[in-house]
Amino acid sequence: MTADTVQGFTQDRFAGVRDAMAANLASGADLGASFAATIEGETVIDLWGGWADAARTRPWEADTIVNVYSTTKTMMALTALLLADRGELDFAAPVARYWPEFAAAGKERVTTGQLMSHSAGLSGWEQRLAPADLYDWEKVTSLLAAQAPWWEPGSAPGYHAITQGYLVGEVVRRITGKTLGTVFREEIAEPLGADFHIGFGPEHDARVADLIPPEAGMDLSSEIARKSLGNPGLDPRDTRTREWRAAEIPAAGGHGNARSVAEIHMLLANGGIAKGKRLLSEAGCRKALELQVEGHDAVLGLPIRYGLGFGLPGAMMPLPNPNTLFWGGYGGSLIVIDMDARTTIAYAMNKMHSGTMGDSRAFGLMMAMQQGLMA
To answer: Quick one: average pLDDT of 248-272?
Structure first.
């Protein structure tokens, strides 16, 4: 096997995507990666290649999965949208309706929609945490429930990089009596036969690619970024531990590949139907497009527009069609869901770059796909 070997399939018109992935692998921009796309509910690209480890002893296989960091948030959001579609969760309702303890410290009017849109003022923990505290659900959710917001909730965006998963996850747990990872698995992943996991056992460990830390860390130049992203700091090498993999960290701990990410989000691209199964109504899917807050994100330092659980097109992410959702993960993973074109595009890799919202590798593959669409 050579470094630029790409496996899988594409429709003929998307041969350029295979070439672009081969170029990424050959140049060293990627070590191992996967890319997938769906159109009108059909998977039209499903590619993978490279290596699952830095020593190049394990090829990236069809069933290789990897920690995708914040692309996990889209699975968390989809789970919440499913509950809302059933009438069990109201995004306009106060969080305290479902989680009474959350009303402490002036948060009685914070809504679940503000949790979903990174505008609740709880982008980090006031108390200093150790990395292992992320595995203690009761501790981290209790601290957030007791904490006062860092800014007026709903007034501005500030990326809740790790806290969002615990906040939305606890609301889901209070409603269903089950953890978010369990609800996601039972209600979404298993019905679709999708290989994406928010917390899993050792039976999958042999399939997990090692994340390779970026040469430069995240930008922590502002005080709020340091408080939000640096407590506790994220070390990608922790994702190789059994403790990280077993824990449910719904904002950052999900494992999957491009195929599973693209095929799960067919639900949103295709009006609630994927793999021949209807899990949401079309109106329930389009709820995600409702703008909740926009402005300069205090944590990311970028202009952003947030819907319910997803980013919306804007200056930071100019996309061809208005009814599009997207999000990415630390290091480079990305999902784009275009409801107008009824497409999903996903990328997952193990060699991390320093950004939090995709990079030239994913965008190059997307451009190659766009050229195929226009051919």
So the answer is: 98
What b-and-e string marks burial along 5-41, b requiring 16 or more CB atoms within 10 Å of the CB?
ebbbebeeebebbbebbbbbbeeebbbbbbbbbbbeb
Annotated catalytic residue: which of 27, 34, 70, 333? 70
Question: Which tokens sit at 178?
Answer: 């089950």
Alpha helices in 71-123 (DSSP H): 72-85, 112-116
> How far is Cα of residue 301 from the mean position of the Cα atoms in its chain?
19
Write the pLDDT tens digit of every residue in 302-338: 999 999 999 999 987 888 899 999 999 999 999 999 9
Q: What residue has token string 């990305």?
A: 334
Q: Where are the domains of the chain?
A: 6-374
Sequence-distant (6+) residues with CB within 8 A of 146 are: 101, 104, 105
**6-374 sits in which CATH class?**
alpha beta
Q: Which amino acid is at 47?
A: L
* pTM for the full predicted model: 0.97
Cα gap 138→188, rounded to integer Å = 25
Task: Give the residue among 191, 199, 159 at the shortest CA–CA distance from 70.
Answer: 159
Active site residue 70: yes
What percent of the chain is modeled with pLDDT above 90? Answer: 92
pLDDT (tens digit per residue) in 80-90: 999 999 999 99
Left, alpha or beta for 342 (phi > 0: left; psi -120 to 50: alpha)?
Answer: left
